[in-house]
Protein 1
Amino acid sequence: MTATVPTTIPTSDVDPFAHEVLEDPLPMHAALREAGPVVHLSRHDVYAMARYAEVHAALTDWQGFQSAAGVGLSNFRYEEPWRPPSLLLEADPPRHDAPRRVLQKVLGPRALRRLHEHWRADAEALVDEVLAAGTEFDAVPVLTEVFPLRVFPDAVGIPDDGRENLLPYGDHAFNAFGPANDLVAKGAPRVAELSGWVAAQCRREVLAPGGFGAEIWAASDRGEITPEQAPLVVRSLLTAGVDTTVHALSAILHAFATHPAQWDRLRAEPSLARVAFDEAVRWESPVQTFFRTATTDVRVGDVVVPEGRKILMFLGAANRDPRRWADPDAFDLSRDPSGHVGFGMGIHQCVGQHVARLEAEALLTALARRVRAIAPAGTPVRHHNNTLRAWESLPVRLTPA
Amino acid sequence: MTASVSAPALASAPASADVATLRVVDKQVRADGVVTLDLASPSGGRLRDWTPGAHVDLVLPGGLTRQYSLCGDRFDPATYRVGVLLEPGSRGGSAYVHRELAVGDLVGVGGPRNNFPLVPSERYLFVAGGIGITPLLPMVRQAEALGADWRLLYGGRERRSMAFLDELAAFGDRVLVRPQDETGLLDLAGFLGRPRPGVRVYSCGPAPLLAAMERACADWPPYTLRTERFVAVDGGAPARTAPFEVELARTGTTVVVDPGSTVLDALGRVGVEVLSSCRRGVCGTCETTVLAGRPDHRDALLDDDERAANDCMYVCVSRSRDERLVLDL
Ligand code: HEM
Ligand code: FES
């Protein structure tokens, strides 16, 4: 039998996508965490979770919190998506199964072993080039954008022409998870052109043999996904694999520039590179938010989120929840960042996480070997995006070892 | 604002020790010689997710490991169901499950892993022989839910020995039930019809059935037929239920892992931090190189060949078959 009881839910009129908030979301995160396990955001009429326990639980409960109605504000049950939905990110089981299985194999830790040596060599070559050109520069265009753009598109196997389209395309895709604000409008004029270019890179004919893209097509030859699905699975790599890593690398460089003792620690113990990167992903949460849609009335604490409603999960707030993390605002290599939700959790957990870690490990190891100190050399500038926490510019001064 | 108090509550995931040891919460006879076991976490939390065609490795008391297909409802996050046939002459796995294993007992669980995934298609033909129905049961439910065009041919010795007939009856004439004592050998050619593209054929059952399927599908396009056959994978030594030692090659330290704790926890206690994430053997983050010793793999990631290589393990859930493992840490 179903009884009805009145419940009260904390409400906030904050707009998480306003420029002041994107500039520094931490005060809003703290307020939402304090307000309760789930909060109603009146501006967008959605529910929100900012505490670790609830965000972790919602991420893993795909039965109750679906992705196929979109993982942005837009509800695909009523609204037309701006592009054909992702077969991974915006899909539920059972349709999610086959594309996920294929990509998990192609991007799994064992499959990436063959890239270790190449990426390490590429990272060392880049750091040498950069240091030879000067020791004071803006790290975003010189290091954190360059390295992923050098190794990742090659690993996917797309041609050289037009790679400068990858960052603006990804930036727009991540903006499009938010409301139709000025950030979305800014990207709109190029959507058709960029989408056309991306679609052209997903075709079998253009993808180099041996790359992730060719392997996805080979899986379709074996019937593991359909030939219609293959280009969309390749598209997932091109959308989700570039901006995210660039911003994560910026996050860790900024973290080290502002925490010199932690840099010394990494130099003394280079095997900490992996932990350091995940600590930076926890601390900064390059992907700040994703939405889910309730498939049924779900009780959270003493509040019920009604069926069909959108829930905004603040990964960034969960990753600094003092209920889960001691001294959460500290960037600290002696912490065990395991279990952070910066890559998500559950069946949609970032399928590219091993790629991101490998890129970061390669670059950090090369830097740790050649650079004694990293210091800020000016005021860093944020890049605003409805989903991503990013830097536009990070002036740094390096002291060669 | 009003709300229904009967709404399901958001529950968090259990720690890793729970996902690799489950409790038998129900045991039912489904047909002559077939029982199902329902398994759940002792703490009642979510189990590792699975897809139709997946199996789990059950580590039975005494350390025998046996693979069983999951045949329950994948939308139920808290329960696994496996169907177990009493193998004639069995002194090990299936006899133990039938005669000894009781509601309330704990069993070790590895996986779920899937060597037999249901690939996307609009048309499926399923052929089950005897207990081979177990992996196909969730597949037909899924094909139905997706609105695919599908048929199941289900053969067995005699009607009494064929499990899940009641459940399958709901699908009407999509399911052809063919007990051998009533209708003779399965008419595979008649069921399959002429070779045509776009159809996926799935079959599970005894070796002679699978051999007949290979022949019957010889003229079909490549990758049409998918089969699953379980081979005994005991890897020599049974899984250990006793404590074992883990030696860390780089530091020379040795730690003891007792049955109640994971390798990851044991490493943490001596200050060796291995990055982890899901702590359920599904994400791959805690992969660690194995230099010596044979792991007791409990993850949902490695396939049989990768397991047999014994060159890496996921320390959040996997354990040891040998008294000592040497890790590259
Ligand atoms: C540090 C860098 C990265 C971060 C912080 C990140 C973050 C995330 C997060 C939070 C999710 C979960 C989405 C959800 O639950 O709805 C996700 C999913 C995904 N990521 Fe990443 N990602 C990163 C790098 C990459 C890379 C390098 C790739 C490609 C190689 C990639 C491809 C994907 C894909 C395809 C999904 C969807 C998976 C699914 O829904 O099954 N990501 N990522
Ligand atoms: S932490 Fe995910 S596999 Fe071990």
Protein 2
Amino acid sequence: MALTSPESKIWWNERIGRAELVWITIAFLWGVFMFSMMVWWHLEGNQNLSNEVYRIAPTKFEEKTEAFTEKYTVREEAGMPVAKPEPGAEVYMLSRLWEWWPILELKKGQTYRLHLSSMDWQHGFSLQPVNINIQVHPGLEHVVTLTPTQTGEFSVVCNEFCGVGHHTMVGRIHVVE
Amino acid sequence: MSVTTDTNIIGGVAAKFRTCPATGLDIDLAAQRLIKANAVAAIVFLAIGGLFGLLVALTRWPAVHLLSSDMFYLVLTAHGLDVLLVWIIFFEIAVLYFASAILLNCRLAAPRIAWVAFGLMMAGALLANVTVLQGEASVMFTSYVPLKAPPNFYLGLILFAVGALLGCFIFLGTLVIAKEEKTYEGSIPLVTFGALTACIIAVFTIASGAIILIPTWLWSLGYISHIDTVMYKLVWWAMGHSSQQINMAAQVAIWYAIPAILLGAKPLSEKVSRAAFLMYILFLQLASAHHMLVEPGISSEWKVFNTSYAIYLAVLGSMIHGMSIPGAIEAAQRRNGFTNGVFEWLRRAPWANPAWAGMFLSLVMFGFLGGISGVVLGTEQINIMLHNTLYVPGHFHATVVAGTTLAFMAITYLLVPLIFQREIIWPRLAKWQPYLFGLGAAGISLFMMGAGTLGVSRRHWDITFSDATLSFDYPPAAFLMLGLNGMSGILAAIGGGLFVVIIVASVLFGKKVDASNIVAALGPKPQKQMSDAVTSYGSAGTFHLPGTYILVSIFFTAFVLYYFVNWKYLSELWQMG
Ligand code: HEM
Ligand SMILES: [Cu+2]
């Protein structure tokens, strides 16, 4: 039994039962399938995380985001600027203790290049209720291509623990027709 | 009567032994004391950490919202630390000593050093706990840089890890001694092989831990100015996730051990089961990939290869155990005479024996809840929908609470008579314990997964965002999920508390066990319907095992369906590239 040494000393020569062989084969093929699925989705699927990343000093990213915001601000909301970039534009959103800045207004069906980075600690970009979650690091500028497919008011919740104010860190993205 | 002698000398080295009344094995008293010490330490930390878990669950229940935000993050840090690291690893050290010295009929290598290991682990655990409870180290047990804790937090973890590493070497040393002193014949038993797998992986993960924790400690002391945030996570999780494979190997070993003790089960094929363990070692690689799937600065090729453990070969290992364990049980029970219909063997299993019930619930819940959700969560693109939501703790409470913790509880019901030589006190109550805890654990897993699917963030004090400038409302169903999670947490805490009380009381006040009552002390066992012993059948693989085929088919169907449902959800997400 399992608690004692195998009865047959040359246990590696024992025949494997048929049922076990069948199951091993099915499980193996299923693994190959699941692996291929991820590869295939990179080729044919529409939801993949971009690999476009640059090293950047937080101050530099802050400058870029401020320049972007200044250029596109259309109004204020809760004391925060709302930037409405033209479709296809480079869009910036920075994270810091404890806000996502600025607020964005995007158009449905248009594709944007969203630049994300952190000024201080790691944060979690969690777009709700869509449920897209991306980790944000200080010192790395991550460029994600995003195409909103719904209109409405969306929130960016921080879902990486970032200290005592973590649960107050909410940003906003509006999507309009 | 169990006899204590020091005339019983193996291989020329004096060690004190007693003879086990159940098995006739020589039990090294030094090993026995160390197993007791490590198991007791483990259970104490389970009690503390479990209580913290309850407080966390009650805080996340919006209608109760028990703790203040500061306390919540503090207690959550302590919870992760005490249960995932301290409880599990102390218990694993006990399992390693049991699977080597006891099962191989051998003395434990270097008991003095084993005590040093115990002392280091205890000192480390206490230091880390005190630092967290002082309130300056609420960085979660993962302590992602640049979040910084005081140096003693990292130092505590390092001491704990060094102690555990010593424990691993004691295990390996014991295997060498047993081989040299020929205390067993042929190959080591399957359970010991599983423990060996756990130990090899442990050495790898502890090395990773040292590589990352030592620089982080120096950084916290001010000797190093910068730690790369992505690199930190990569190496930290080479410890953190790979060590889940230690739990896996240890708990699978227990899944083989308990049916062997209670039913006389034999593996269907030694070759297949051992190969499956080997896959854990060979294809473990950088399982840290599971935690890096939506991280910037890491290529998709790397993610896809590593998250799938090289085309799911380690998952294949688990799927193989998933058939060979119920198969071994069915074969043994059919041998015991329970041959009616497809499921008599399962119906007539000793469900009133907490060791059996805990083991079987652990197997089923690990597979159905933890295994399936883990593979889905670890799919590169699907992770975009689930990363850092409550789905993640939902998944790992299925693996590490419903799976590992319950399996460890189950084997404890046998360790108490075998090693502590005490009867389980209050068997009536003990009978219910695994069901209560199992139900609670299943609840917290499922409801956290449910809340996560609805987008609720993990490690988050206030899902109503009452202090935030901008507001957001999660759907009402999310509040319901968190309420149900809180109630399940209470159930799990009652079940866990019962376990601690029963075991502590049994160890202190249980009736002494000797040759006259050892068999009864192991709890109810099935009445054999046939007299010929189970020990004599050959390759169990030649049996027809319809019940197992059905169980495995149900599992596979659930797996495939759930997998595709998630791809469908993913395809409805905003387009991104
Ligand atoms: C009474 C039993 C338990 C209850 C009610 C419970 C409940 C919870 C809850 C509600 C969370 C927080 C999720 C969040 O807000 O992010 C959590 C986190 C966690 N639990 Fe448990 N748990 C229990 C037992 C355990 C056990 C036995 C283990 C390990 C063996 C465990 C391991 C963890 C870990 C590692 C975390 C993550 C901590 C972090 O995010 O830093 N839990 N638990
Ligand atoms: Cu944050």
